[in-house]
Write a structure and sequence with these properties.
The protein is of the alpha/beta class and about 260 residues long. About 40% of the residues lie in helices and about 15% in strands. It has a single domain, classed as Alpha-Beta Barrel (TIM Barrel). Helix 6 links the parallel strand 6 and strand 7.
């Protein structure tokens, strides 16, 4: 019964994305979201070839858009506006204290169909602090994001996706997250938007890296003004180049029915 319900949920989710791509209000030539990829932490505990041996099962010229460190006005709002205009869905790895400061933005991210994931409480490099402090950073961050989303804190994430700040993982922390059923995301390529550059230079850099990798998990930061300014042109370039956006989502939770 659980597997049947899961199949129905996945079909419904796929149909929703297909419909959104076919009918993008105000933009008949929108890039759209090509498909949804369900990520199961049991089979994909760590993904992203810049950091781990494996990545997501993406086809040639498929990309997954991910954004770190937010939410932060006004740049996160500008990123969301660009994604909405192209009917594209992405994954946001949120810092807990930013989520606590801007809960309305967290709820907007979720309401517009994006995946809300986790990036610690205060963006500390976890391999440089005591294990207990690192675990507290992870749990505090998750609890803050869950509180912004659902009105109460919880250390069991509704979306079990996590990215280490600075990709500063340790074997013990990786094992800890795997034991909790939380998938760890690295990246296949990044925009290097922590370096100051013009939006035009960043666009050229991202497109050149995409040409070399033929797709993959892309890392951006929605806190960067240059990224927010560059994103509309990037989405148009992806469509012209024949790239397809894949939206990653967690396994749907089985629904308990009462008799």
């Amino acid at each position: 019964m659980v597997m049947k319900l899961l199949s129905v949920a996945l079909l419904a989710l796929g149909a929703t994305i297909a419909a959104a791509r076919a009918d993008c209000p105000g933009n008949a030539d929108a890039l759209g979201t090509a498909r949804v990829l369900i990520v199961d932490p049991q089979t994909s505990p760590r993904v992203g070839r810049k950091h781990f041996p494996a990545t997501l099962p993406l086809a040639d010229k498929e990309v997954v858009l991910t954004f770190d460190d937010g939410p932060l006005p006004p740049t996160t709002g500008r990123v969301l506006d660009a994604l909405r205009h192209e009917c594209v869905r992405a994954t946001f790895f949120l810092v807990g204290r930013q989520a606590a400061a801007h809960p309305a933005l967290v709820r907007r991210i979720a309401a517009e169909g994006h995946t809300v994931a986790h990036h610690t409480w205060s963006h500390r490099l976890l391999d440089r602090i005591a294990p207990a402090a690192a675990l507290a950073e992870i749990d505090h961050g998750i609890a803050a994001v869950e509180a912004a989303l659902h009105g109460r804190p919880a250390t069991t994430p509704s979306t079990p996706f996590f990215r280490f700040p600075g990709f500063a993982a340790s074997p013990a922390l990786l094992d800890h997250l795997a034991g909790r059923g939380i998938a760890v995301f690295g990246a296949d390529l990044w925009a290097s938007d922590w370096n100051p550059m013009t939006p035009e230079a960043q666009l050229a850099l991202v497109l050149s890296r995409l040409e070399a990798t033929r797709g993959g998990i892309l890392l951006f930061h929605d806190t960067k003004a240059q990224t927010a300014a560059m994103l509309p042109a990037l989405l148009r370039a992806l469509r012209r180049g024949g790239y397809r956006v894949v939206h990653v989502a967690p396994l749907p939770r089985p629904t308990a029915f009462r008799r």
